[in-house]
Structure formats: C-alpha cells, structure tokens
Amino acid sequence: MVTAAELAARLASGRPPVLLDVRWALGDPHGRTHFERAHLPGAVFVDLETELAAPASPSSGRHPLPAIDDLQASARRWGIRDGDAVVVYDATGNLAAARAWWLLRWAGIPDVRLLDGGLAAWTEAGFEVESGPGARLAGGDVTLTPGHLPTIDIEQAATWPSAGVLLDARAGERYRGEAEPVDPRAGHIPGAVSAPTSENLDSSGRFAAEPELRHRFAVLGVDASTPTAVYCGSGVTAAHQVAALAEAGIEAALYPGSWSQWSADPTRPVAT
Known about the structure:
It is built from 11 helices and 8 strands. It has 272 residues and is an alpha/beta fold.
C-alpha cells in the first residue's frame, strides 16, 4: 500500500511512479467517463475489460488473464519503463485496481502499490484532482514475463480444499446460492470457505489494519503456513483478497477462471 501523503511525495520526486486509474465496477461500463470527470494529476486510464483481461468465453471465464504480449503492449502504452514503480487506484476501495496490482506483479514488476483508500483518500487529504483525457506519457519499454505470482487452474481448484483453504471472495448471498446476477449457476465450489472481499476494508474504504486482517483470516482457517487460494466471480475482486492476505503476511494463489469458469462447466459440482 501507499498512503495519499506518501504518494504525493513520490510524485514530486525525481522519478515519480507511473500512476494508473482503474475505474471499473460490475454493471458500470462508464469508467472512462468517471475518470475524465476527476482523476489524480498525471494518471493514465486503464480499461479493465480490454487491457486487464482477454476476451470472455465459457471455457475460460468472464475475465481471463491477458496474453503476456498483450499486457506488455498495454503497459508500454501506459508509459511503464523497466525499473519504474507503479501506483494503481480506483474509486471503489481498490476492488478494481487490485486486478492491475496483481497482474503487473504476476508479470514481473516488483514495485506496484495500491493507493489505500483510492480517489476518496486523495481528495480527503486535500490534494487536487484534474479532469480531461489524462496524461499522455512517452511510450514505455518495460519487458514483462508471466508467472511471478502463483495461480491455480480449474482442476487444482477442485482438489484444493482437501489440502488447504479455498476462499470465495464473492458476497455471501452468491456463495450461499441465494442470488447469482451474472454467472450460469448459483452456489460455490464444494469445500470453499466464504470470505467476502468487502470485509477486507474498514468504514473509510481503506484496508483494515494488519492485525485485524490476520485475525480475519485466522478465523477462516488461514495463516502463513496454510496453502491458500482465492476465487471470486471472474478473478477481479479475488485479486483484492490476495492483496489483503499479502498485507497479513500470507501468500495466496489466484484462480483466474473463478466462478464464471466453474459454473459454466455442467460437469462441475455446485454446493449451496
């Protein structure tokens, strides 16, 4: 994480971080419009649907991981150079920005941070925003390689609860099968444990303190020695859970296909 004050200081330094705005929410296709109304000075808009995911399909889910060459081309368009630090944020408690945080670290960029509290924290601290199309940075030259953070596939998700803990980061009603607004079937992967992503945050939209996160995950049966994996609806908010676990000192694997892939396969069992 980085606080608003820390980010302001870094932006005023000799080599400021590349600043990415990932304005996205399920059911809201107007991220760029929100960005153009108000964003952090110098930020570049990132389109989650087209730049942080490959095209959707029943066999791979709603937000498959992008091909590494495509992600690298996007990162260069955003102006990222080898050795650059990156800060990502959104206006929804980092529920979307965490996807960029996870992807860029998975692709080999070591210094990627989330602006804790996002846009609201920045404005509450008294810092200015700007409007318009955003920064036009010089083309980057970053080289990306996949696999720097752990992932699991659908076969591993099926057996993971027998050897570790598989966390379901969706809202409780979706886990229980009481509601399913977007995916083919309601319910959860058998053996998974409900761990709604919203519970990673405090009332201000910032991540809970490290001791509170450690306690939250301990209650769910997870500590630093537990083999842990996370899924959600399509691998977006699960990245937020991975970030919260990292804050608590716990490494976790991401299941990118998540429920959107699992529920589209009629041979996969569903629990409610």
